[in-house]
Amino acid sequence: MRAEERSGSLLTAPYAAFLLIFAVYPIAFALALVFMQWDLVTTPSFAGFDNVRLLANDGRFWRAVANTFVFLSIHVPLQIASALALALALNRRLVLRGFWRASFFLPVVISGAVVAILWSHLYATDVGLINRLLARIGLNPVPWLTDPATAMPAIAVMVTWKNVGFYVIIYLAGLQYIPRSCQEAIEIEGASAWQRFRYLTLPSLLPQTLLVVTLSTINGFQLFIEPYVMTGGGPLRRTYSVVLYLYTNAFAYQKMGYAATIGVALALIIGTVVLIQRRTIGRTEAL
Amino acid sequence: MKTFRRVALYAGLTIAAITFIYPFLWMASATFKPPIEVGSLSLIPNHITFDNYRTMWARAPFGRALLNSAFVATTITLAVLLFGSMTAYAMARLSFRGRPVLNAATIAVLLVPGQLTLIPLYTLIVQLGWIDTYAALIVPYLFNATAILMLRQFFLQIPQSLIDSARMDGMGELRILFTIFWPLSKPVLSIVAIFTFMGSWNEVLWPLLVVRDQHLMTLPQLLTVFALGGGAGTIGVSLASAMVLVVPVVIAYAFLQRNFIESMAGAGIKG
Prior knowledge:
Oligomer: heterodimer
Number of helices of chain B: 14
CATH class of the largest domain in chain B: Mainly Alpha
Strand content of chain A: under 5%
CATH architecture of chain A: Orthogonal Bundle
Shape of chain A: globular
Radius of gyration of chain B: 23 Å
Number of domains of chain B: 2
Radius of gyration of chain A: 24 Å
Distance between the termini of chain B: 44 Å
CATH architecture of the largest domain in chain B: Orthogonal Bundle
CATH class of chain A: Mainly Alpha
Number of strands of chain A: 2
Distance between the termini of chain A: 57 Å
Largest sheet of chain A: 2 strands, antiparallel
Strand content of chain B: under 5%
Number of domains of chain A: 1
CATH superfamily of the largest domain in chain B: MetI-like
Structural class of chain A: mainly alpha
């Protein structure tokens, strides 16, 4: 055997073993668990399509899926608008540019658990900071996290706040690629600021917008620690997320087969939604 | 008109910056306030107290959790740098039979959502008898596909002549990696180090599944359990426990902002 061949195989053997144990096997076993019933104590038993049937008729699961779509319908547009606005502001000649950028990025480096704990105090009905601010300008307190109508939107706003710095960096990178010559040409043509934004900046940033949509959607489907800490899934299960439901089935009910089925279904839903988004947004490019 | 727009721009930026910074400042100041003052919007306590920290420290093993988090995140980061660069070096610069399969598998792994493998990984840890061990927190993270791809991409750009002449001098592949490639790869190694460390430092779902013993909990987990279990009692105590997790990160971020932003944004885009 050639020396290079041997070194290559030796150097990558640990990684290959790792992939087999911690990636290939779990994926295969996830698919097997869909057809099994297992409480981790007794031996696993074959369950046929029981898990799939249960899932199809499980109101709690579909409630969680619907909640996620409520979350996404607020989070994704808000994330695009806020990240784009901040990136456009940062893209000018500024004093303290580094400071502004660093302050927008600060929540990104802070643990989601901390942000959730902090914001549950900011959102608190009686003593929360936000309601105290509202009181200052003469408005009534809002029961942010305890009203079924406002709980999920409140969480969506918080997650947008936490992640916006990350997406600002993506848009800033995209803005670097708009050629100077295009900007000058459109200015010579006498386009207004709005026209420049609408017909040059926005179309040029389509790849970045697609990335923001995809990443914030995937992120939304993975919502867990925020409802876990802030609402426990309530009120009226309106903030119950799919991952929280998966976690509860595995950890509280010891239903490994069913929890794995939820995981597989979630992966399929994420794949489908992202694919549809890419198709739809990809098509607007042609217009 | 121009000055007006300039003023509006800076006013907007200031409001945005306050929105992102003020909650954390309020949190820090609330931990030094007695319960009666916590609700106030002011950042300066009328009576400074350390009771929140004393209570938090006495009620749950936060010192131990800090050590656990530091140990787990450091071990994982070192492993990802060491094993990741060995793997990436072979995948970038050595031709061997399994290489195309490994490349494809690495990309495929990144496309599979973590929720799909979460339960099988959990049952694997149960069957290995690793519940309530450091192994459960560390071993599944020893390799990182994003890190391997980033390192591989960087290693591909290093000139072949360097490898050839090193081999001529009788250097082995590992020596070439650590004495020639590593010094040239400091930027990408620091990017990988930061996002790996931060990912581990902030992770909470996996520890919640595999650790139940308070003395093995990492900080984010203990913090969550402490806040939810009512152990904290008051807002000040709950936020004081969050400070243990936040302060080291904010200090590191203050010194290495650029690296943090480059690393955490870069990893997200590629990962």
